[in-house]
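Budget justification, computational time. The allocation requested in the original proposal was used primarily to generate C-alpha cells for proteins on the priority list. As evidence of use, we reproduce two of the resulting records. The first is shown immediately below.
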Amino acid sequence: MKYEREYSASPSISRSLSRDCDHKKVSGVCGGIAKHFDLPRVVVRIAAIGALIMLPVATAVAYVVASMLLPDSRRR
C-alpha cells in the first residue's frame, strides 16, 4: 500500500508556519503544523488529542495562543 501525501516538498509551497484555513476542524492550527512539517493531518490531530489528555491546561493554552498568533494561510 502506497501512501501519497497531499502536501509536497516542492519549492512552490510556502514553508512558513500558518493556520490552514482550507483543512481546518477547529481553527486550523493542527493542519498548519502538519503542512509545515509535511506530516499527515490526522497524525498531528491525534498527537494533539493525546497531549490534551495528558497535559490539558498546557495544551489548551498553547492551542489558543497558536490560534491567535499564527496568520491565516489565505492572507498569503
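The second record produced under the same allocation is shown here.
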Amino acid sequence: MRLAELFRTKPLEQVLAEPTAASGQLKRALGPWDLVAIGIGCIIGVGIFVLPGVEAATHAGPGIILSFAIAAAACACAALCYAELAAMIPVSGSAYTYGYATLGELPAWIIGWDLILEYMVGASLVAIGWSAYLVNLLNNLLAPWNMTLPQTWTAAPWGPNPGVFNLPAAAIVLLLTWLLIRGIKESAQVNLTIVIVKLAVILVFIALAAGHVDPKNWKPFAPFGFSGIVTAAAIVFLAYVGFDAVSTTAEEAKNPQRDMPIGILGSLGVSTLLYMAVAAIMTGVVPYHQLNVADPVALVLNHLGMPWASALVSVGALAGITSVLLVLLLGQPRILFAMSRDGLLPEAFSRVHPRFQTPHITTLTTGLIVATASALTPIGVVAELCSIGTLFAFAIVSGGVLVLRWTRPEIPRPFRVPLFPVIPALGVILCLYLMVSLPGVTWLRFLGWLVLGLVVYTAFGRKRSLLNRH
C-alpha cells in the first residue's frame, strides 16, 4: 500500500457532479426557512433540557454558564468554516465530503467513521433524555392515583437506577425513522412545527423561574476549578451539532449556495443566548449538586412547587428533544449514503427509495442501531463519546478551509469566512483544546473506535474505493 494512495483527494469537479450523475437522486425540497428550522431543531434540545444540569453537577457548578460561552466561541469559528464549505460543495456527506476533497481518502474515512460515532451516539443520548421527560410527564399525570411507570421498562440495565430496557427511547427512534423514510419535505414540516412549540416552552420556563433565582446559589461559581468549566465546555459542545446536521442536507436544498450559510449561521446566535439564560436560571434556583438528573428543567419547576408547569415543560421538552432526534437521524444516513457512493461502504447504502427519494436503507439501519443503543445505555457514557466526535469533526472542517483556500483559490466561494486565516486557525485550536480537556476514559473509547474504523477501511473500503478502481 503506497502512502500516496491513502491521501488521494477526490476531484472537486467530480464531487460537484455527483448529485446529478448518481443513479438515485435525492429530492431538492428544502428552502432557507427549512434549513434554519433544521439547525434550531437540532441545536436547541438536549443542550438546554438535559446537559446543563448534568454538567453543572459533575464538572462546572454554576460556571456552566461560562462553559456554554466557551463552547459557543469555538462553535462560531467552526460554523463559519462549515458555511463556506457547504456553500462551495453543496453535496451530501458534511465534513466527510469536505475532507475527501481537501485532505484525502484516509482522512475522509476517519472523518466519516467519526461522524458515525457523533450522530449515532448523539441520537442515543437524545433518545434517553426524551424518555426521561416522557416518564416525568406521565408520572405527574398518574400521581393522583398513586401510580408510576415501571422502571423495569423505562431505564437501561446499567446506571444509578437500573432497569431492563428503555422502551420509550427505542419507540421514539423507530417512529422517527419511519417518518424520515417517508420523505424529506414531510420531515422538515414536522420539524418546523416542533421548533415553534419548543421555543414557546423555553420562554415560558424563563418567565416562570427567573424571578426565583437566588444569587447565593452561584457561589462558589467554579467549585471544580477552571479546568472543570473547560471540561464541561468540551462536553456541552455537542449541543451545537445542529449546524453540522444542516450541512448534511445540502444535496436536498433548493438553492444551497445561498441558503446553506443562512441555515448554519442563522440558527447559532439565538441558540447560544437561550443556552446561557437557561443555565443561569437553573443553577440560580436549585443548588448545582442537585441537578445531576436527565430532566433538570422539570426538576427546577418541581422544586418551585409547580408540578403543573413541570408537566407543561415536559411536553415542550419532549417536542424539543424530538426535533433534535429527528435531525440527528436525518443527518447520519446521508453521511453513510455519501460514503457508500464513494465505494467505502457497501453499495446497498447508496440506494434511494424509488417513490420517496430518501436513502431508506441507511435510514433504517441507523434507526435500528440507535434504538438498541438508547434502550440499553446510560446517559453519562454517551454524552462524553458524542462530544469528542463532534469536536474532531469541527477541527477537520476548519482545517479543510485553510487547505482549500491555499490549494484551490480559484474556486467560486458564495460565502467566505471573514478574518481568514485567523478564524479557521482558531477553530482548529479551540476544538483541539476542548478535546484535550475531556476525561481520559473518553479518549480511550474514541481511539478504540478509530482503530476499529481503520480495520474496516483496510479490509473493505480501501480496495472497493471508486478512486482505487479508477
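A brief technical remark on that second record: The first helix runs from residue 3 to 6.
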